Automatic annotation (TrEMBL):
Protein name: NAD(P)H-quinone oxidoreductase subunit 1, chloroplastic
Mode of membrane association: Multi-pass membrane protein
Family as reported in the entry's similarity comment: Belongs to the complex I subunit 1 family.
Encoding gene (name): ndhA
Chain segments annotated as transmembrane: 30-57, 102-123, 129-154, 262-287, 307-329
Naturally occurring in which organism (per UniProt): Primula denticulata subsp. sinodenticulata
Alphabetized GO MF terms: NADH dehydrogenase activity; oxidoreductase activity, acting on NAD(P)H, quinone or similar compound as acceptor; quinone binding
Length: 370
């Protein structure tokens, strides 16, 4: 009996010793799961703030170009106007076409937004500040961005409206026409950098500072990429899928409420991601415009200076990105809209041969340098 009691005491002690250890392991697992979502949530929050800033900038810049007063009542200088519009759309009634395909009608806007949000996973905002440093990062962006026009086509077809369906067809045709020159320009950059990773492409431009940017080594590809990215974002003068004069707002004619707002969110998300890729591929990304040799003198390997360096890298990336955004917004309120035949002719007859020639020149220079 005494031996049994001693064994029970030993077993109870072992269980009590194991329980705190198991609880600690569970807490560690929960902490690891929560910490894994922190970078994703931080990126999503930053993207949301960036889109709100773009909407405010577009309204202010367009007001300045047209010599009128922009938003000024919702918050100081009207900075909360986009937030007020979004709140209004959330509370508006969602209407559905009586004879349309409700499933396609509902999935279309979500597919357009989600496919563009996934593109941000391969964008480096600084050194080691990237969600997924993949070896095929730039081509993953192209593959994911090609899904968005499918959502627009689904929206047009599910609306059971000939104008909406025609707008969806225009979006698909426009995307196919300009994705090919865009891909050829990206392929040229990959050959020049000997990598398809977005981080490696930025690092390849950092050796000579300002003069090491791909903008100077690929000027033809830069302009082709610039035009193609504007067409991919359906911005003026390439907003044919939403030509109000011809299609009564195109594929979003039958939409209301938050689904109507998702199309505009997708448009600005696409504009922001295209601007970030221009920065990464051609403008040196997060690097300063100085030779790579001088940078270690400013940023030594300490924790405090690593944090300061990361903040400066993010600031430089966003400064270059918003410079391109300013050019895109100015272009929208300056140039007239093209016709559909002019849009397709520009893509197939001009940009495609030019991008092919640029790829041939890049390949030849790389072979000669071996």
């Amino acid at each position: 009996m005494i031996i049994n009691k001693v064994e029970m005491i030993i077993n109870t002690t072992e269980v009590e010793a194991i329980n705190p250890f198991s609880r600690l392991e569970v807490l560690k697992e929960i902490y690891g799961i929560v910490w894994a979502f922190v970078p994703i949530l931080t990126t999503v929050l930053g993207i949301t703030i960036g889109v709100l800033i773009i909407v405010w900038l577009e309204r202010e810049i367009s007001a300045g170009i047209q010599q009128r007063i922009g938003p000024e009542y919702a918050g100081p200088l009207g900075i909360l106007q986009a937030l007020a519009d979004g709140t209004k759309l959330i509370f508006k009634e969602n209407l559905f076409p009586s004879r349309g395909n409700i499933s396609l009608f509902s999935i279309g806007p979500s597919l357009a937004v989600i496919s563009i949000l996934l593109s941000y996973s391969v964008i480096p905002f600084g050194y080691h500040l990237v969600l997924a440093d993949l070896s095929i990062g730039v081509f993953l962006w192209i593959a994911i961005s090609s899904i968005a026009p499918i959502g627009l086509l689904m929206s047009g077809y599910g609306s059971n409206n000939k104008y909406s369906f025609l707008g969806g067809l225009r979006a698909a045709a426009q995307s196919i026409s300009y994705e090919i020159p865009l891909t050829l320009c990206v392929l040229s950059i990959s050959l020049l950098s000997n990598s398809s990773s977005t981080v490696d492409i930025v690092e390849a431009q950092s050796k000579y500072g300002f003069w090491g940017w791909n903008l100077w080594r690929q000027p033809i590809g830069f302009f082709v990429f610039l035009i193609s990215s504007l067409a991919e974002c359906e911005r003026l003068p390439f907003d044919l899928p939403e030509a109000e004069e011809e299609l009564v707002a195109g594929y979003q004619t039958e939409y209301s409420g938050i689904k109507f707002g998702l199309f505009y969110v997708a448009s600005y998300l696409n504009l922001l991601v295209s601007s970030l890729f221009v920065t990464v591929l051609y403008l040196g990304g997060w690097n300063l415009s100085m030779p790579y040799i001088l940078i270690p003198e400013f940023f030594e390997v300490t924790k405090a200076r690593k944090i300061v360096g990361a903040i400066i890298g993010i600031f430089i990336t966003l400064a270059k990105t918003y410079l391109f955004l300013f050019l895109s917004i100015t272009t929208r309120w300056t140039l007239p809209r093209l016709r559909m035949d002019q849009l397709l002719n520009l893509g197939w007859k001009f940009l495609l041969p030019i991008s092919l020639g640029n790829l041939l020149l890049t390949t030849s220079s790389q072979l000669l340098s071996l």
